[in-house]
What does this fold into?
Amino acid sequence: MIGRIAQLPPLPLAAAAAALAWLALGAAHAPAGMPPWGWAATLGAWACAWALVESLARSGWRHAGLAAPAVFGLTVLFLWEAVTRGAGVPAVLLPPPSMIAERIADSWHILWADFSQTFLKAVLIGYALGCGAAVATALLIDRSEFLQRGLLPVGNMVAALPIVGVAPIMVMWFGFDWPSKAAVVIIMVFFPMLVNTVEGLKSAERMQRDLMRTYAAGYWQTMGKLRLPAAAPFMFNGLKICSTLALIGAIVAEFFGTPTVGMGFRISTEVGRMNLDMVWAEIAVAALAGSAFYGAIALIERAVTFWHPSQRR
Amino acid sequence: MRRAAGDAGPVLCVLMAILVLWYAAAAALNLQWERDQAERAGRAPSLTQMLSAAMSQDRPVLPAPHQVAVEIWKTTVDKKITSKRSLVYHSWVTLSATLLGFAMGTLLGVLLAVGIVHSRALDLSLMPWIIASQTIPILAIAPMIIVVLNAVGISGLLPKALISTYLSFFPVAVGMVKGLRSPDAMQMDQMRTWSATTAQTFWKLRLPSSMPYLFASLKVAVAASLVGAIVGELPTGAVAGLGARLLAGSYYGQTIQIWSALVTASILAAALVAIVGAMHRRVLRRMGAAA
It folds into this structure.
């Protein structure tokens, strides 16, 4: 059935999905709960959206890679709204997206204060210091093969350890404010970044290094003109992995004690008071910040390592 | 194996260096307190006296390695396993949630990967969201999942396992998509000339050739599951598990307890990764590939 209607071109399918979704959302707001035709409209909208994605996938449209996930995301949001409103799911369990959006609009100044405490201070500072220290250490290790062979397996092992556990210790050492969170972030990002950078510094080939020697290039010239650029794809891989780790580290560290501001603090206290719409608002901010951080690094990567096969189009 | 043997010397050296650094840091951090105490009491102990005192404080800023080792020994071997103070008991609580979450995450990841490889619509619409899902700091959502599920009446193992599932499905899904797509065009064409069905191609070609990718992801996933289970224990108010030991230790300033829980968690992680690695070699040998 869905396969049959997926033969239609995307445009009428999109219109049908939107119309049915509008009907269903209207029905979901009925005071007596969702009438049966509302559920039918919900299912219809879902089927149309599904067919739309299939049709998009087949159309070979240039922006299909962007439109398909967008349609999917909107469908999830719509189903969430229709089901929570229509079935009367209590807001304590799962608030509908519209309620979360209202909450974000109402209390953006609290959200901003939490964001600047957790993200602008703890995450960014810890990330910069941790990754910087890792790159510096990698450059030092690079000169000794003995240290490399010894440190790499250890670094790989440490990368698999539950480092988040040092959070209570850091809070004890550096106090409740953001420096303790930045310290957790530094420790969390250090080893993944170190391993990736050392791996990257090895990627310049013997032949290329010999060529640099025939040009009588010094250590720093070889480093700046050949080995660091060759290492860049690996380093960006590490930077991307670390961007999510940093946010997790800072938020979890706040569970162990904070001043009365910060995303982790807000989440744990509002959960205790069953203010789930505020929790979801905070999560939305965290998700947005995390995605934007990752996206920014991906953009820088594209600008810096434009020559790498994975970036060519 | 020869390479591993060649690395043993340097690795041991580095581990020794870490141990020495740890002792030096413990001495430096704990001496300050001893010095203050001595000054307040008007005593002037010798440096060796102060050093030995610094190595055996009750609540050191940084416990010395042997203190942690003694604490682990006391709470594993000397205590009954059923005791609430036994680390074996707490490790088991965490480990059971880890394994359940790991199993569910692996299953979910493999199912998603199979769907994505076989349906272009799923590939287009789901894959970007799977990647985006990992930029969300899921550990931040952990307390909410636990509390909400508690309100519905689900408590104990499952909520923690769900967090582990979320953390572990991602590496498996991404690795399996890569693995199931790893057979090259020549091999796929060969299957077509034998007029193999999609199912046959899947069982006889795609699945076997995805095994190296699957196990590489499983190693990452099992470590992530453990982190998920530990963090999942934090908001339940420190009842049982390694995460609860961390939280209780941080409430009461029991640094030795924190460090022993931390070291136990690390040993657990290393053991889990090693087990997956051993399974990997075994499966590869059974399949006739060179390990």
Summary: Residues 2-62 of chain B form one domain. The mean pLDDT of chain B is 80.
